[in-house]
Amino acid sequence: MYRHEIVRTVKKPKLSKHKDQIYTVLLPWAAEVARRFHIPSAFLSIQSATTFAIYRCFFDSRNGLCSNGDYSQSIESIILHDELPPLRAMTCHHFFLNCSRRDYIQWLDAKSNSSVVYASFGSMVVLNEDQIGEIFQGLLETNRPFLLVIRPNDNAEGIIANKMKGYLDGQEQGLIVPWCSQVEVLNHPTVGCFVTHCGWNSTLESLAMCVPIVACPHFSDQLTNAKMVDVVWKNGIMVRARDGGGLVERKEIRRCVEVVMGDGERGEEIRRNALKWKGLAMEAVKEEGGPSHHDLRVFMDRFK
User: Fold this and answer.
1) pTM for the predicted model, two decimal places
2) What is the distance, to the nearest Å, from the Cα of residue 301 to the centroid of all Cα atoms in its chain?
3) Cα 212 to Cα 274: distance, rounded to the nearest angstrom
4) Alpha-carbon dihedral sign for residues 24, 30, 32, 37
5) Is 78:154 a contact under the CB 8 Å cutoff?
6) Which parts of the chain are coiled coil (predicted)?
7) Phi then psi dihedrals of residue 272, to 5 deg
8) How far is Cα 49 from Cα 27, in angstroms, rounded to an integer?
9) Over the range 44-66, which residues count as b (16 or more CB within 10 Å of their CB) and which as e?
10) Which pLDDT tens digit goes with each residue over 167-200?
11) In the chain, what are the domain boundaries?
Protein backbone atom coordinates (compact mmCIF):
# COMPACT_ATOMS: atom_id res chain seq x y z
CA MET A 1 0.00 0.00 0.00
CA TYR A 2 2.74 2.46 0.96
CA ARG A 3 4.71 1.67 -2.17
CA HIS A 4 1.77 2.52 -4.42
CA GLU A 5 1.11 5.70 -2.43
CA ILE A 6 4.70 6.90 -2.89
CA VAL A 7 4.61 6.12 -6.61
CA ARG A 8 1.33 8.03 -6.94
CA THR A 9 2.79 11.02 -5.11
CA VAL A 10 5.98 11.06 -7.17
CA LYS A 11 4.02 10.96 -10.42
CA LYS A 12 2.17 14.14 -9.43
CA PRO A 13 4.82 16.79 -8.77
CA LYS A 14 2.26 19.21 -7.34
CA LEU A 15 1.59 16.74 -4.54
CA SER A 16 5.22 16.36 -3.62
CA LYS A 17 7.47 19.01 -2.09
CA HIS A 18 10.31 16.55 -1.51
CA LYS A 19 13.15 15.90 -3.92
CA ASP A 20 14.89 13.13 -2.01
CA GLN A 21 14.06 10.04 0.03
CA ILE A 22 15.43 8.42 3.18
CA TYR A 23 14.31 4.88 3.99
CA THR A 24 15.17 2.26 6.59
CA VAL A 25 15.05 -1.50 7.13
CA LEU A 26 12.22 -3.69 5.79
CA LEU A 27 11.50 -1.16 3.04
CA PRO A 28 13.77 -2.30 0.15
CA TRP A 29 11.12 -1.30 -2.39
CA ALA A 30 11.67 2.36 -1.42
CA ALA A 31 15.09 2.28 -3.07
CA GLU A 32 13.58 0.70 -6.19
CA VAL A 33 10.99 3.50 -6.43
CA ALA A 34 13.72 6.12 -6.00
CA ARG A 35 15.83 4.59 -8.78
CA ARG A 36 12.80 4.34 -11.05
CA PHE A 37 12.08 8.06 -10.77
CA HIS A 38 15.72 9.19 -10.46
CA ILE A 39 15.22 10.50 -6.92
CA PRO A 40 18.27 10.73 -4.63
CA SER A 41 17.84 8.25 -1.80
CA ALA A 42 19.73 7.06 1.25
CA PHE A 43 19.44 4.14 3.63
CA LEU A 44 19.08 5.00 7.33
CA SER A 45 20.68 2.28 9.43
CA ILE A 46 19.04 2.05 12.85
CA GLN A 47 21.72 -0.32 14.12
CA SER A 48 25.34 0.35 15.01
CA ALA A 49 28.00 1.22 12.44
CA THR A 50 29.80 -2.01 13.38
CA THR A 51 26.72 -4.11 12.63
CA PHE A 52 26.18 -2.31 9.32
CA ALA A 53 29.82 -2.93 8.37
CA ILE A 54 29.40 -6.65 9.12
CA TYR A 55 26.29 -6.85 6.93
CA ARG A 56 27.97 -4.99 4.10
CA CYS A 57 31.10 -7.12 4.32
CA PHE A 58 29.00 -10.26 4.20
CA PHE A 59 26.85 -9.26 1.24
CA ASP A 60 29.81 -7.86 -0.68
CA SER A 61 31.67 -11.14 -0.07
CA ARG A 62 34.78 -9.16 0.80
CA ASN A 63 35.72 -11.65 3.48
CA GLY A 64 35.63 -14.60 1.10
CA LEU A 65 32.95 -16.46 3.04
CA CYS A 66 30.69 -16.76 0.01
CA SER A 67 33.38 -17.41 -2.57
CA ASN A 68 32.43 -21.08 -2.89
CA GLY A 69 28.72 -20.31 -3.12
CA ASP A 70 27.89 -22.15 0.10
CA TYR A 71 28.74 -20.10 3.18
CA SER A 72 27.08 -22.68 5.46
CA GLN A 73 30.04 -24.98 4.90
CA SER A 74 32.68 -22.36 5.71
CA ILE A 75 31.28 -21.00 8.98
CA GLU A 76 31.44 -23.08 12.12
CA SER A 77 28.05 -23.40 13.78
CA ILE A 78 28.27 -21.62 17.13
CA ILE A 79 24.70 -20.46 17.80
CA LEU A 80 21.62 -22.65 17.81
CA HIS A 81 18.14 -21.15 17.67
CA ASP A 82 14.86 -22.78 18.49
CA GLU A 83 12.35 -23.02 15.69
CA LEU A 84 10.54 -19.79 14.99
CA PRO A 85 7.44 -19.48 17.19
CA PRO A 86 4.01 -19.00 15.59
CA LEU A 87 3.35 -15.46 14.42
CA ARG A 88 0.60 -13.76 16.38
CA ALA A 89 -0.79 -10.27 16.44
CA MET A 90 -0.13 -8.20 19.53
CA THR A 91 -1.72 -5.01 20.72
CA CYS A 92 0.46 -2.04 21.55
CA HIS A 93 0.00 -2.48 25.27
CA HIS A 94 2.56 0.04 26.52
CA PHE A 95 0.05 2.88 26.69
CA PHE A 96 -2.46 0.86 28.68
CA LEU A 97 -0.30 -0.91 31.24
CA ASN A 98 -1.32 -0.60 34.86
CA CYS A 99 2.01 0.84 35.96
CA SER A 100 2.26 4.14 37.80
CA ARG A 101 5.37 6.22 37.21
CA ARG A 102 5.05 7.44 40.76
CA ASP A 103 5.42 3.89 42.13
CA TYR A 104 8.78 3.01 40.57
CA ILE A 105 10.23 6.52 40.80
CA GLN A 106 9.36 6.73 44.49
CA TRP A 107 10.89 3.31 44.97
CA LEU A 108 14.10 4.45 43.25
CA ASP A 109 14.15 7.70 45.23
CA ALA A 110 14.38 5.70 48.46
CA LYS A 111 17.59 3.89 47.39
CA SER A 112 21.24 4.89 47.66
CA ASN A 113 23.09 6.32 44.66
CA SER A 114 24.36 3.73 42.15
CA SER A 115 22.94 0.85 44.21
CA VAL A 116 20.05 -0.40 42.03
CA VAL A 117 20.23 -3.07 39.33
CA TYR A 118 17.79 -2.29 36.49
CA ALA A 119 16.85 -5.31 34.34
CA SER A 120 14.83 -5.02 31.13
CA PHE A 121 14.96 -6.83 27.81
CA GLY A 122 13.27 -4.58 25.28
CA SER A 123 10.05 -4.99 23.34
CA MET A 124 10.94 -7.94 21.08
CA VAL A 125 12.86 -10.45 23.19
CA VAL A 126 10.51 -13.03 24.72
CA LEU A 127 11.93 -14.87 27.72
CA ASN A 128 10.66 -18.30 28.74
CA GLU A 129 9.65 -19.07 32.31
CA ASP A 130 12.91 -20.82 33.16
CA GLN A 131 15.01 -17.87 32.02
CA ILE A 132 12.86 -15.32 33.83
CA GLY A 133 13.17 -17.42 36.97
CA GLU A 134 16.96 -17.60 36.71
CA ILE A 135 17.22 -13.84 36.20
CA PHE A 136 14.94 -13.19 39.17
CA GLN A 137 16.82 -15.56 41.48
CA GLY A 138 20.18 -14.23 40.30
CA LEU A 139 19.12 -10.68 41.13
CA LEU A 140 17.86 -11.82 44.53
CA GLU A 141 21.18 -13.49 45.30
CA THR A 142 23.11 -10.27 44.69
CA ASN A 143 21.45 -8.84 47.81
CA ARG A 144 21.21 -5.57 45.91
CA PRO A 145 17.99 -3.64 45.19
CA PHE A 146 16.65 -4.32 41.70
CA LEU A 147 13.96 -3.06 39.35
CA LEU A 148 12.84 -5.83 36.99
CA VAL A 149 10.60 -5.32 33.95
CA ILE A 150 8.48 -8.34 33.01
CA ARG A 151 6.25 -7.58 30.05
CA PRO A 152 2.78 -9.18 29.80
CA ASN A 153 3.82 -11.29 26.82
CA ASP A 154 6.72 -12.67 28.90
CA ASN A 155 4.76 -13.83 31.90
CA ALA A 156 1.86 -16.10 30.86
CA GLU A 157 -0.95 -13.67 31.67
CA GLY A 158 0.75 -12.38 34.79
CA ILE A 159 1.26 -15.73 36.55
CA ILE A 160 5.06 -15.51 36.66
CA ALA A 161 5.14 -11.87 37.74
CA ASN A 162 2.53 -12.47 40.44
CA LYS A 163 4.50 -15.44 41.76
CA MET A 164 7.64 -13.33 42.01
CA LYS A 165 5.79 -10.42 43.57
CA GLY A 166 4.46 -12.85 46.16
CA TYR A 167 7.99 -13.95 46.91
CA LEU A 168 8.99 -10.31 47.39
CA ASP A 169 5.97 -9.46 49.53
CA GLY A 170 7.10 -7.34 52.44
CA GLN A 171 10.65 -7.00 51.10
CA GLU A 172 12.19 -3.81 49.78
CA GLN A 173 14.91 -5.50 47.74
CA GLY A 174 13.02 -5.80 44.48
CA LEU A 175 10.26 -4.18 42.44
CA ILE A 176 8.62 -5.84 39.41
CA VAL A 177 6.79 -3.71 36.84
CA PRO A 178 5.26 -4.44 33.40
CA TRP A 179 6.75 -1.27 31.88
CA CYS A 180 8.69 1.84 32.82
CA SER A 181 10.21 4.89 31.16
CA GLN A 182 13.65 3.48 30.44
CA VAL A 183 15.42 6.78 29.79
CA GLU A 184 14.03 8.16 33.04
CA VAL A 185 15.13 5.08 34.98
CA LEU A 186 18.63 4.99 33.47
CA ASN A 187 19.02 8.69 34.24
CA HIS A 188 18.09 8.16 37.89
CA PRO A 189 21.12 8.55 40.21
CA THR A 190 20.33 5.38 42.17
CA VAL A 191 20.71 3.07 39.13
CA GLY A 192 24.19 1.57 38.97
CA CYS A 193 23.84 -1.37 36.56
CA PHE A 194 21.71 -2.26 33.53
CA VAL A 195 20.99 -5.94 32.76
CA THR A 196 19.91 -5.71 29.13
CA HIS A 197 19.43 -7.62 25.87
CA CYS A 198 21.73 -5.04 24.24
CA GLY A 199 19.38 -3.78 21.56
CA TRP A 200 20.93 -0.73 19.94
CA ASN A 201 18.53 1.77 21.52
CA SER A 202 19.10 0.34 25.00
CA THR A 203 22.85 0.27 24.44
CA LEU A 204 22.93 3.90 23.31
CA GLU A 205 20.77 5.01 26.22
CA SER A 206 23.03 3.23 28.66
CA LEU A 207 26.13 4.83 27.13
CA ALA A 208 24.59 8.29 27.28
CA MET A 209 23.43 7.83 30.89
CA CYS A 210 26.73 6.40 32.18
CA VAL A 211 25.21 3.11 33.36
CA PRO A 212 27.47 0.01 33.20
CA ILE A 213 25.99 -2.98 31.38
CA VAL A 214 25.47 -6.68 32.00
CA ALA A 215 24.81 -7.85 28.44
CA CYS A 216 22.36 -10.72 27.78
CA PRO A 217 22.05 -10.75 23.96
CA HIS A 218 19.58 -12.95 22.11
CA PHE A 219 19.64 -12.34 18.34
CA SER A 220 20.45 -9.97 15.47
CA ASP A 221 22.71 -7.00 16.30
CA GLN A 222 22.39 -7.65 20.03
CA LEU A 223 25.28 -10.12 19.84
CA THR A 224 27.55 -7.58 18.15
CA ASN A 225 26.54 -4.82 20.56
CA ALA A 226 27.25 -7.08 23.54
CA LYS A 227 30.68 -7.92 22.13
CA MET A 228 31.45 -4.22 21.76
CA VAL A 229 30.36 -3.56 25.35
CA ASP A 230 32.47 -6.40 26.74
CA VAL A 231 35.61 -6.27 24.61
CA VAL A 232 35.90 -2.92 22.80
CA TRP A 233 34.22 -0.20 24.87
CA LYS A 234 34.72 -2.17 28.11
CA ASN A 235 31.79 -0.48 29.82
CA GLY A 236 30.20 -3.78 30.80
CA ILE A 237 30.39 -7.55 30.76
CA MET A 238 28.61 -10.19 28.67
CA VAL A 239 27.00 -13.21 30.33
CA ARG A 240 27.94 -16.73 29.31
CA ALA A 241 25.07 -19.16 28.77
CA ARG A 242 25.13 -22.73 30.00
CA ASP A 243 26.43 -25.13 27.35
CA GLY A 244 23.76 -26.64 25.12
CA GLY A 245 20.46 -25.07 26.08
CA GLY A 246 21.38 -21.40 26.02
CA LEU A 247 20.05 -20.81 29.54
CA VAL A 248 21.82 -18.08 31.51
CA GLU A 249 21.89 -19.39 35.06
CA ARG A 250 21.32 -17.39 38.24
CA LYS A 251 24.91 -17.79 39.38
CA GLU A 252 26.09 -16.21 36.12
CA ILE A 253 23.69 -13.28 36.52
CA ARG A 254 24.92 -12.82 40.08
CA ARG A 255 28.58 -13.09 39.04
CA CYS A 256 28.27 -10.49 36.28
CA VAL A 257 26.35 -8.01 38.45
CA GLU A 258 29.01 -8.35 41.14
CA VAL A 259 31.79 -7.76 38.61
CA VAL A 260 30.10 -4.56 37.40
CA MET A 261 29.06 -3.19 40.79
CA GLY A 262 31.74 -4.64 43.04
CA ASP A 263 35.02 -3.17 44.27
CA GLY A 264 37.26 -5.29 42.06
CA GLU A 265 39.68 -3.94 39.47
CA ARG A 266 37.47 -4.81 36.51
CA GLY A 267 34.42 -3.19 38.07
CA GLU A 268 36.36 0.02 38.62
CA GLU A 269 37.58 -0.09 35.00
CA ILE A 270 34.02 -0.65 33.73
CA ARG A 271 32.71 2.32 35.67
CA ARG A 272 35.56 4.56 34.47
CA ASN A 273 34.84 3.57 30.89
CA ALA A 274 31.10 4.17 31.35
CA LEU A 275 31.91 7.71 32.46
CA LYS A 276 34.29 8.19 29.53
CA TRP A 277 31.73 7.04 26.98
CA LYS A 278 29.07 9.29 28.46
CA GLY A 279 31.38 12.25 27.88
CA LEU A 280 32.06 11.16 24.30
CA ALA A 281 28.34 10.65 23.65
CA MET A 282 27.47 14.11 24.95
CA GLU A 283 30.24 15.65 22.85
CA ALA A 284 29.02 13.82 19.75
CA VAL A 285 25.49 15.24 19.92
CA LYS A 286 26.39 18.86 20.63
CA GLU A 287 24.09 21.06 18.56
CA GLU A 288 26.96 23.03 17.08
CA GLY A 289 30.38 21.58 16.42
CA GLY A 290 29.77 18.02 17.53
CA PRO A 291 30.75 15.13 15.22
CA SER A 292 27.15 13.96 14.75
CA HIS A 293 26.00 17.48 13.85
CA HIS A 294 28.89 17.87 11.42
CA ASP A 295 28.29 14.48 9.77
CA LEU A 296 24.57 15.18 9.42
CA ARG A 297 25.32 18.51 7.72
CA VAL A 298 27.74 16.81 5.33
CA PHE A 299 25.14 14.14 4.59
CA MET A 300 22.40 16.70 3.86
CA ASP A 301 24.72 18.76 1.66
CA ARG A 302 25.13 15.76 -0.63
CA PHE A 303 21.45 16.00 -1.54
CA LYS A 304 21.75 19.60 -2.73
Assistant:
1) 0.78
2) 31
3) 6
4) negative
5) no
6) none
7) -65, -45
8) 19
9) ebebbeebeeeeeeeeeeeeeee
10) 787 678 999 999 999 999 999 999 999 999 999 9
11) 2-44, 100-282
